[in-house]
Amino acid sequence: MRRATALLGLLAALPFAAPASAQETDTPPKVALPPAEGEFRPGLGVETSHELGDPLGLPLSGEELDRAVAEVAADIRCPKCQALSIADSGAASAQAMRAEARSLLSQGYTREQVVGYFEQRYGEFVLLEPRARGLNLIVWAAPAAIVLVGGLLVALRLRQRRRSADEGLDTYLRQVEQETAT
Amino acid sequence: MTSALGQGFVLLGLIAAGFGTALGYIAGVRRSAAGLRLTRRLALLFAVAMVGASAVMWYALLSHDFSVSYVAQVGSTATPLHITIFSLWSSLEGSILFWGLILGLYIAAAAIFQRRGHEDYLAYTLATLLGIGAFFTFLIASVADPFAPTPPPVPVDGPGPNPLLQNHLLMAIHPPMLYLGYVGMSVPFAMAVAALLRGQLGATWLRPMRRWLLVPTSFLTAGIMLGGWWSYEVLGWGGYWAWDPVENASFLPWLTGIAALHSGIVQQRRGTLKAWTVILIMITFLLTILGTFLTRSGVVNSVHSFTQSPIGPVFLGFLGLCAAAVVVLLALRIDTLVSEPSNERLVSREGAFLLNNLLFVSLMFTVLVGTLYPIVAESLRGVKVSVGEPYFNRMAVPLFAALLLLMGVGPALPWGGSDPKLVRRALVRPLPAAAVGLVVALLLGARSAPVLIVSAFAGFALWVTADQGLRPVRVRPRRQGGRSPLAAVLVAPDKLGAYVVHLGVLITFVAVAVSSTFQREAESTLRAGDTLRLGGYEMTFHGAERVQEPHLIRHQAEVEVMTNGRSRGVLYPSLNIYPNQREPIGTPAVRTSVGHDLYLTLMNVGGDGSIGLRAITTPLVAWIWIGVVVMVLGTALCLIPTAAERRATTPRAVPDLAASPAGGGR
Amino acid sequence: MNRRVLLVGLGISLPLLAFLGFAFRHDPQIVESPLVGKPAPSFRLADLDGNIVDLAELRGQPVIVNFWATYCVPCLYEHPLLMEGARRWQGEIHFLGVIFQDDPDLIAQFNADYGRWGPSLIDEGGRVAIAYGVYGPPETFFIDRDGVIVDKAIGAVSPDQLLDVANRMLAQPATATG
Question: What CATH class has A47-129?
């Protein structure tokens, strides 16, 4: 089997003691600086605008921007930490994400767009509050449902208690007799 | 050699627990005094075995005996002595052994303190406790054996415990407190099982059961608080509660434990809610096992998780077994616990207790659903989701606010609540205090509706708490011929204790509300000589130094804090780099004062000597911890025997039903 | 026998136990990327020597983008495999390394010590890592001739996966796109 032998070859390369050797693999042509055309800006970095669409809000600045960044950051999970938002975490990647949120918000993207961007990149996991749709509705409806059902049970109990209170003493005495008999 | 000795103790414990379980149940069914005596001896033997096993492990840790696998895993000759002592519970296997130790101590305490007057309950209680003990010793003897001999070659040194657990003394007391809380819930559980098996739950068994519930609940309170404090002092994110799955896991049994404490009051007073109290206690126990499972199985993402291990499935099996046993036992026997008839109204003390239970149980379910939903989503949708702080805050804050309101209204209402005039008066009198709370909040600059509502509720509750708590002192001397206030209190210390606990809750509640609403922060990159300003503070960075310590490299920044141009001291926030840790771990520097905390964290240290500094001011943080201390003190008051209990020096075996207050003086 | 208690008790505890049991089948550390099957975000970055790499211009040939750092142990572990892969498919597949939150000097030192399998690109501000939704190093993205992410590895790439996906990408005919 060719595949198996090839695999073996790769496996043999695994023990990572492999120190510096002259066999530097030069990956083929790195294209040098042609002037950007079409969708690319001349600067370095990553192109995000075609995934984000057009900014739907107004560019923010100053305190308004700070507030918006804080709001977005509180809802995004820091990818490297456990249960902390990128607002709370000091991890380098959390700082980078806050900076990204700030940059996008200052360009006029709305909070929803920025949160959506992170979700699109990292998956639903990055949202500290699950979106209220589909199966997630369980988690949104559960608290209210529990309070309602519990409240109903309490109400039923109160009604039943009031009704049985008068005749209750007799039954109670009978039960006492039964219990002491056993 | 050490391995064999330790394993011998564990085996002894397993045998004692196994026989004790069987014997205890037989003795309970046959009501055999001799059987009970033997069960008690086996219970004490189990405790001795657990103490012995732990002592052996401590000895191995302290003598750096790396032939014991657990020592090879967490020990290190470079670790300071006190940390070596704590490392008994710093990793999975050791923590289970420690669990066994605490269970052994609780079982011994139950066997000793409950020995008189409760023979027919005690056999079942000890049998159940020893059953739990048998499971844990089985774990220690099999999948989580800390005494397993290290496969050769035996190392000459080990890695030492997790660095995060090394850099603060709080880590030494937080886990034991939590375990004392978790494990202690086994005792009321076993007592509730006994009540079901006997088919009776009267005042003579209820009182000790409530007390045995009060003790672990209080430990759990302290444990949760210490965890928050540790998180605040060590993790450097400026908060104390992140709704992390494992934090939630410790919160769940706390909620139901408190619900059970309250429903127990109704039962004591009115003879109702018997079955419900028993159910709550059983749920509380199951939640402690669930919490332990979540922490130790690695199925949830959490800071606290131990690494994935074979212990998970075994634990899940135990959880399933316990749940099945509880459900079947409840279904078979719950109808034997007959409540006494009483008329209940919504607007009465009883009604308030019912609502209290509704709110606590709803909170528990909410936190449970939020904590486990990621697992559900992954099973059904195949997608990982998070349920985190924003969700829990949104859901829990209204429920907590309702509880705060209830904490004011409930104790003000009269039992029975049949006289509307009385009820109205009780609710109108504290209103000025509510207004004061509102005005104070307004004066302090609060404008948001939730904060104003909470302030008004808190004012109301504070007045009622003080009024009710001091009632024995105010009322009794007049009626009973000028008794001293202290003597008046000692007639029923639990009454005052309960309101002291409420006072602590109020303090913590207000502190949490204020601290989470009015937190302010600033962040900046500073070069030596630069100043960061935040809310009246001027923080000047004087330079950073690199300190080489035995097991870490510490980058420490010197930041001088000034207010109004006067120096208030120097703070040293630092970043610690451990050789085997990817990201540096920050240690914040905190300046605590009565009004607020200044909290500095070092975000990064640049090659050019600049630093990223984050400063946070949080009002009233210290009061969160103070409130918890007050709660614990109140609990201690509750544990002092009442005058009636002291008078009955030798508790007689009173027929339960006759001893319970018959329908509140009807 | 109280049926209500039995039914409610079982109704709550059984599903709960079942879900907890299911949870063992998932690794809590691994999060599936939503980007698989989507076009790879295009980037333009300079490597340590100042050469510019533009992902869009590599279209037509498969690309393997690896986010890594010197402090990351699995990165060290997969390094020889990537060396071997880059040699084997030289001229057929582009291997690009993107530095994830690390010091360029350390990266240069690492390359000098252990050899380099491709350009080490400097991701200023970590924006590329965000666009690719990287949780932590190492993560490897396999991008086909059409610029679509066909697979992703979290943690050290296994030889199995590398071989499998590389062959799949190479077998795919080049569609005529710019």
Answer: mainly alpha
* Nearest of B57, B113, B52, B111 to residue B89 by alpha carbon: B57
| Whole-number Å distance between alpha carbons of C159 and C78 | 9
Task: Find the domain containing C161 and state its range.
Answer: 34-171
Q: Which residue would you say has higher pLDDT here, B276 or C175?
A: B276
Q: Which of residues B120 and C67 earns the better pLDDT score?
A: C67
Whether A25 shows a pLDDT value over 70: the answer reads no
Which three-class secondary structure state does DSSP give residue A151? Answer: helix
In 3D space, the residue among B219, B30, B50 whose CA is nearest the CA of residue B129 turns out to be B50
Name the domain count of chain C. 1
pLDDT in tens, B438-489: 999 999 888 888 889 999 999 999 999 999 988 877 765 555 555 677 777 7
**Least confident residue range of B58-72, B311-325, B543-557:** B543-557
E-assigned strand segments in B376-415: none
**Chain C neighbors of B293, CB-CB under 8 A:** 20
Task: Name the residue among A69, B389, B59, B330 with its Cα closest to residue C7.
Answer: B330
Please report how many Cα atoms fall inside a 13 Å half-sphere around the Cα of residue A172, on the Cβ side: 16
DSSP at B287: H
Q: Compute the distance between CA of residue B533 and CA of residue C96 in angstroms, rounded to an integer.
A: 43
Secondary structure of B122-142 in the HEC alphabet? HHHHHHHHHHHHHHHHHHHHC
Q: Residue C118: name the closest of C79, C162, C71 by CA.
A: C79
Distance in Å, alpha carbon of B330 to nearest chain C alpha carbon? 7
pLDDT digits (tens, 9 = 90+) for B7-53: 999 999 999 999 999 999 999 999 888 999 999 999 999 999 999 99
Nearest Cα of chain B lies from the Cα of A178 at a distance, in angstroms, of 11
Tokens of B72: 């090879």
Within a domain: residue C15? no
C-alpha B42/C-alpha B21 separation (Å) is 9
Q: What CATH number has the domain spanning B520-621? A: 2.60.98
Q: Is residue C26 part of a domain?
A: no
Domain ranges across chain B: 1-158, 520-621
Query: HSE (CB half, 13 Å, CA atoms) of B474?
Result: 7
Strand order in the sheet with A45-46: A45-46, C43-46, C52-54
**3-class secondary structure, C149:** strand
CB contact under 8 A, B301 and C22: no
DSSP A49-116: HHHH-S--SPPP-HHHHHHHHHHHHHTBB-TTSSS-BTTT---HHHHHHHHHHHHHHHTT--HHHHHH
Residue-wise pLDDT for B515-554, tens only, equals 888 888 888 889 989 999 998 899 999 998 888 877 778 8
DSSP B154: P
Average of pLDDT values for B97-118?
90
C156 lies in a domain?
Answer: yes
Q: Which of B345, B369, B388 sits opposite A83 (nearest CB)?
A: B388
C 6-25 residues with CB below 8 A of B?
A: 6, 9-10, 13, 16-17, 19-24
First to last CA, chain A: 80
Please state, in angstroms and as integers, the Cα–Cα distance from residue A41 to each residue in A35, A38, B333, B381, following that order: 9, 8, 75, 39
Interface of B with C (CB under 8 A): 286, 293, 297-301, 312-313, 316, 319-320, 323-324, 326-328, 330-332, 334-335, 372, 375-376, 378-379, 382-384, 582, 607
Sequence ranges of the domains in chain A:
47-129, 134-172
Judge contact between B226 and B174, C-beta under 8 A: yes
The one-character DSSP state at C47 is B
Q: Could you tell me which of B254, B244, B330 has the C-alpha nearest to residue B287? A: B254
- Residues in Cβ contact with B137 at an 8 Å cutoff, skipping those fewer than 6 apart: B10, B11, B13, B14, B17, B46, B49, B50, B100
C136 part of a folded domain: yes
